[in-house]
Design a protein that fits this description.
Elements lengths: L1 H5 L7 H12 L5 E6 L12 H7 L7 E6 L2 H9 L4 E7 L2 H8 L3 H15 L5 E6 L12 H13 L4 E6 L6 H14 L4 E6 L6 H11 L4 E2 L20 H10 L8 H15 L7 H4 L10 H9 L1
Parallel strand pairs: 1-2, 2-3, 3-4, 4-5, 5-6, 6-7
The protein binds coenzyme A (COA) and zinc ion.
Length: 301
């Protein structure tokens, strides 16, 4: 919901947002990022954060998380009783300046204040943007990502999400990153966040799965992108990723037919086609009728 909608040009009515979160809550997700408590000028699409958080039905077992950029965001998120605060900063200096309008060190210091203010009342996750490359600066070294992960882990956060904000990661890079982070931070909840900007999203997800990662962000229909990252495009599509893992025999715990049904309703909500493929093609076990001549040919063979 959060990354999915934040870049959409046309405001999605609050009613539609609430309905969609409620429907997603019945699909088996462990966590839904509902909205963000950012400046309404920076992200006008999510200016109804309080109302959405107040109106959704909380299904037991589903965690409702929200993006929090600063202290003001944390106050609002606390008021809205979010189950988790997802703090955000970039590992690239340029993207941090473009997106959050301050240096990384200033962001880090601000997030330390947020963590102190929350003081254990709500679990904290930190999303580290552009961890596999910055669309303006280029390479972001793994050491920098590990450095920020360590600084947040030392502050006692519950989890860190390693984000490929503009789809620059490749599977080899993902494997190196995931192997190293899991070895260094065995107690940290690690989540991987991929965008399919260059068609490498599911390959990257698979590389992370094979390295042992079990938490992923995705978005219905493959919507999404950061409005302050040039060239950004959609997240990996949740239903495509879940369909792939299910086909491989993983127990995802998800209601895939329902999820596909929701993805098929998405173009009506956002007013345009969405990138997800399984919703268009159907699952691999949804077979097509054979043409009549095939049966005729079969009989004369
Ligand atoms: N919630 C609501 N309003 C907020 C806010 C918050 N969390 N943080 C700041 N504001 C408001 C201030 O009240 C101020 O309003 P005013 O102009 O009416 O006085 C205005 O935003 C500017 O505040 P300032 O502290 O100067 O912040 P800024 O302009 O440097 O913006 C951010 C900093 C981080 C708050 C802003 O850039 C932002 O929300 N970015 C969103 C980034 C994002 O979500 N990107 C996509 C996800 S990665
Ligand atoms: Zn993203």
């Amino acid at each position: 919901m959060r990354d999915g909608f934040q870049i959409e040009p046309n405001f999605v009515p609050t009613d539609d947002k609430v309905k969609l979160v409620d429907a997603l809550s019945e699909c088996g997700f462990a966590k839904i990022e509902v909205t963000s408590f950012t400046s309404p000028k920076a992200i006008p699409m999510l200016r109804d954060a309080e109302e959405v958080m107040g109106r959704i039905k909380r299904v037991p077992g589903v965690e409702y998380t929200v993006l929090v950029p600063n202290l003001r965001g944390a106050e609002r998120a606390l008021e809205s009783k979010a189950d988790e605060f997802n703090l955000v900063m970039s590992t690239s200096e340029t993207h941090n300046l473009a997106n959050l309008r301050m240096s990384r060190e200033k962001s880090f210091a601000g997030l330390v204040e947020v963590i102190k203010y929350v003081d254990g009342r709500t679990p904290i996750n930190v999303s580290l943007s552009t961890s596999f490359g910055c669309p303006m600066e280029g390479e972001v070294s793994q050491a920098v990502v590990e450095g920020f992960t360590k600084r947040f882990a030392d502050l006692g956060v519950r989890g860190v999400t390693i984000c490929d904000t503009t789809g620059m990661a490749n599977p080899d890079q993902v494997k190196r990153m995931c192997d190293s982070l899991q070895k260094q931070f065995p107690a940290l909840q690690l989540t991987l966040h991929f965008h399919n900007t260059r068609g490498m999203g599911l390959a990257n997800l698979l590389a992370a799965v094979q390295s042992g990662i079990v938490r992923f962000d995705g978005s219905l229909g493959g919507l999404g992108g950061c409005p302050y990252a040039p060239g950004a495009s959609g997240n990996i599509s949740s239903e495509d990723a879940i369909h792939m893992l299910d086909a491989m025999g993983y127990d995802t715990g998800m209601n895939i037919p329902r999820l596909i049904q929701l993805a098929r309703e998405l173009p009506k909500i956002v007013g345009h086609e969405v990138p997800g493929q399984v919703a268009k093609a159907g699952t691999t076990n949804a077979l097509h009728p054979e043409p009549d001549y095939v049966d005729e040919l079969r009989r004369v063979q």
